[in-house]
């Protein structure tokens, strides 16, 4: 079988099953595992899949830079923002992650909400300047321009003084087996640290982030409390997460 035909078959299996196993593919095609692994490496290099131990998972499309991500699933992110904003109650201390979906959450918070918002995103903080009753704590550190968030030693040190009620986390990959993931190692550490300083963590999961994986693992799905998803997400796609006991939050019908 020619290389291109082989790769096309691998991507077909990946789309159909949600994962591929190198050993199984090698047996099906009568080829060596080394040949299949080489194909997987090349497909991963082209951004068409995410390699994992023993095979591959679908790659996240949400690893583009901040400007490019603003146009991905824009309507869905607005709906998720509205649903997620309703989770923050008066008097609470809430940590709001960075990213384009988190900005939509900030835009949906009621102007009369009296609460405290902790964020390491200058973009999120700017959205809250007209919320007179909100206390906004902006965590400092080195600015990671790809996601417009601060990270590093200073940011992690600031968290030692914070105990929040809820953390709304942005990610690029949400997979029932591979867990939560993102495209930057330092960002993965920061997101995990933010979660560890909150009583509950809910993940902002627009359609393109479900069932896919990125290179750097944040935490297993078992360590979060729920997902905030678009209303159009199929029940079958959410079943593995429901079976784990996660709460699924969807936008209210218009």
Look at the structure and give the CATH class of the largest domain: Alpha Beta
By CATH, the architecture of the largest domain is named 3-Layer(aba) Sandwich
User: How much helical structure, as a percent, in the residues?
Assistant: 25-40%
β-sheet strand percentage: 15-25%
How do the helices and strands line up, and which of them pair or pack?
Elements: H1 3-17, E1 20-21, H2 22-29, H3 33-45, E2 50-52, E3 55-57, H4 66-69, H5 74-85, E4 93-96, H6 100-108, E5 115-119, H7 122-127, E6 134-138, E7 142-144, E8 149-151, H8 153-159, E9 164-170, E10 173-175, E11 179-182, H9 185-196, E12 198-205, E13 216-219, E14 226-229, H10 235-243, E15 247-249
Parallel strand pairs: 4-5, 4-9, 5-6, 9-12, 12-14, 14-15
Antiparallel strand pairs: 1-3, 2-3, 7-8, 10-11, 11-13
Helix pairs in contact: 2-3, 5-6
């Amino acid at each position: 079988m020619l290389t291109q035909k082989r790769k096309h078959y691998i991507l077909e299996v990946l789309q159909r099953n949600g994962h591929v196993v190198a050993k199984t593919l090698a047996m099906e095609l009568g080829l060596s595992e080394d040949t299949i692994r080489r194909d997987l490496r090349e497909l991963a290099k082209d951004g068409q899949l995410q390699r994992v131990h023993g095979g591959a998972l679908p790659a996240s499309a949400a690893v583009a830079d901040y400007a490019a991500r603003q146009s991905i699933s824009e309507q869905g992110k607005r709906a998720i923002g509205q649903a997620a904003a309703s989770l923050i109650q008066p008097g609470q201390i809430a940590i709001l992650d960075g990213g384009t979906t988190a900005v939509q959450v900030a835009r949906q918070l009621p102007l009369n909400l009296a609460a405290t918002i902790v964020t390491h995103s200058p973009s999120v903080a700017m959205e809250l300047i007209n919320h007179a009753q909100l206390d906004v704590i902006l965590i400092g550190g080195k600015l990671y321009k790809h996601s417009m968030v601060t990270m590093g030693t200073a940011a992690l040190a600031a968290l030692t003084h914070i105990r929040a009620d809820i953390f709304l986390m942005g990610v690029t990959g949400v997979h029932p087996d591979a867990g939560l993931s993102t495209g930057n190692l330092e960002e993965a550490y920061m997101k995990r640290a933010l979660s560890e300083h909150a009583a509950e963590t809910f993940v902002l999961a627009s359609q393109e982030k479900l069932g896919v994986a990125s290179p750097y693992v944040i935490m297993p799905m078992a360590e979060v409390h729920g997902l905030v998803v678009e209303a159009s997400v199929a029940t079958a796609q959410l079943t593995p997460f429901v079976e784990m006991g996660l709460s699924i939050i969807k936008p209210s019908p218009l």
